[in-house]
Automatic annotation (TrEMBL):
Keywords: ATP-binding, Kinase, Membrane, Nucleotide-binding, Phosphoprotein, Transferase, Transmembrane, Transmembrane helix, Two-component regulatory system. It comes from Micromonospora chaiyaphumensis. It is an enzyme of class 2 (transferase). Pfam families: HisKA_3 (PF07730). CDD domains: HATPase_UhpB-NarQ-NarX-like. The chain crosses the membrane at residues 30-48, 60-84, 90-118, 125-143, 149-171. Its EC number is 2.7.13.3. It catalyses: ATP + protein L-histidine = ADP + protein N-phospho-L-histidine. This is histidine kinase. Residues 204-268 form the Signal transduction histidine kinase subgroup 3 dimerisation and phosphoacceptor domain. InterPro entries: HATPase_C_sf, Sensor_HK_TwoCompSys, Sig_transdc_His_kin_sub3_dim/P. One of its GO terms (molecular function) is phosphorelay sensor kinase activity. The keyword Membrane applies.
Length: 411
């Protein structure tokens, strides 16, 4: 005989207790039920004892002797039935309803049953039971008249007891609803927080994957460039072949290292709001990027007109680095052998301008380097998220031009 939570029963208040054979009473339930039973039995014995020796000034049970003996049996039965109130409160209330017409000894048991129904069942059911007790009060006093109080005073006292019980039950009901509401809000907040954490992790991993695309595209384009040179010059001097092979090996090792580090980050569970651990280049890494391309045989010219390179915010510098990296990669793919010009300019408050220019390719030298065609799309998304502007395409001079402007707030 125990209880569980079932929210969708037509008679139940959400979160109310209903039968569940596999759930046992908690120690608190045992304590409350035991006290209710003992309190009811104590009232039964007290009321029956007064009926044996009636005293007009204190009598609570006046009437035929057989009625008092019957009342004793009924009161004990109603007290024992309190152990079923958690399982069948409405059924118990309906079965005990006739006792409200004549029984004195079951008064406490009836109040406890009424309290249980008001707390755990919907108000329509509870109000029906309360209405029955209000209607039967005058009938009860007609059968069991009070020897001390006038009829209407006795009615008032009885209604006061019923009203106090109902008020207490409504208070407990409201408190339970509040606790359930707070618990539901806490669970929803926890679920929403977990969802935000999952979304943050997914966004972080997407950003890392985007960073990895830029890095690998750059590294692999260098590998393809040197491999193509070896393919078209098999008779090159051994020193030049060894130098190209060394660059290929170094680029392959660097690409594998970057890939290993990023995959390690993706396999781990990054904290919400954390930035990618690797790679994290800045504007100060652009010269090394240009030197790497020059070592691969790409002709690159750099015009640096940045007012204060050390003051460039990390996020702006990282975006500028990725734009230059993508521009050099595209030049190696689509205009091999062409002169690439990189121009950086700007300052605090004016923003940072990044321009990569190369002649429009007039033919193909060697095998084209494959690509996904999403590099410029990623750059455009990066610039947009940074609050900047991006323009690319063929200009009036016939050159391919990639221009980006990134906001640089004043210090």
């Amino acid at each position: 005989m125990s209880s569980a939570v079932v929210p969708d029963h037509p008679w139940l208040l959400p979160g109310s207790l209903v039968p569940a054979a596999r759930v046992r009473r908690t120690p608190r339930d045992w304590l409350v039920d035991s006290l209710a039973f003992l309190f009811s039995v104590a009232w039964v014995l007290l009321a029956y004892g007064d009926s044996l020796q009636p005293k007009p000034e204190f009598a609570v049970n006046l009437g035929p002797a057989w009625l008092n003996h019957l009342d004793l049996a009924v009161g004990l039965l109603a007290s024992a039935a309190l152990w079923l109130r958690r399982r069948w409160p409405v059924g118990l209330a309906v079965a005990a309803a006739p006792l409200a017409l004549f029984s004195v000894t079951s008064g406490i048991a009836l109040l406890i049953i009424l309290f249980t129904v008001v707390v755990h069942r919907r108000l329509t059911v509870a109000l029906a039971l309360v209405g029955w007790h209000l209607v039967t009060t005058p009938l009860y006093l007609a059968v069991r008249p009070d020897p001390v109080l006038p009829f209407w005073a006795a009615v008032a006292w009885t209604l006061l007891f019923i009203g106090g019980t109902v008020a207490w039950a409504l208070f407990v009901r409201a408190r339970r609803q509040l606790v359930l509401s707070l618990r539901d809000r806490a669970e929803r907040a926890e679920a929403e927080q977990q969802l935000r954490l999952d979304q943050a992790r997914q966004l972080e991993r997407t950003r890392i994957a985007r960073e990895m695309h830029d890095v690998l595209a750059h590294r692999i384009s260098l590998l393809s460039l040197h491999a193509g040179a070896l393919e078209f010059r098999p008779d090159a001097p051994p020193a030049e072949v060894a130098r190209a092979a060394g660059v290929i090996r170094a680029s392959a090792h660097a690409a594998l290292q970057d890939l290993r580090e990023v995959i390690g980050v993706l396999r781990a569970e990054p904290a919400a709001g954390a930035t990618p651990e690797r790679p994290q280049p800045t504007l100060g890494d652009v010269p090394a990027l240009v030197a790497e391309s020059r070592a691969a045989g790409v002709r690159v010219g750099v015009v640096d007109e940045v007012a204060d390179p050390a003051a460039v915010p990390a996020a702006v510098g990282r975006s500028a680095y990725r734009i230059v990296q993508e521009g050099l990669t595209n030049a190696r793919k689509h205009a091999p052998g062409a002169l690439v010009t990189v121009r950086l300019a700007g300052g605090p408050g004016d923003g940072l301008a990044v321009e990569i220019r190369n002649p429009w390719p007039v033919g193909e030298a060697g095998s084209p380097i494959p690509g996904t065609g999403t590099g410029l799309v990623g750059v455009a998304e990066r610039v947009t998220l940074a609050g900047g502007r991006l323009d690319h395409g063929r200009d009036a001079d016939g050159d391919f031009r990639l221009v980006a402007w990134l906001p640089w707030a004043p210090a």
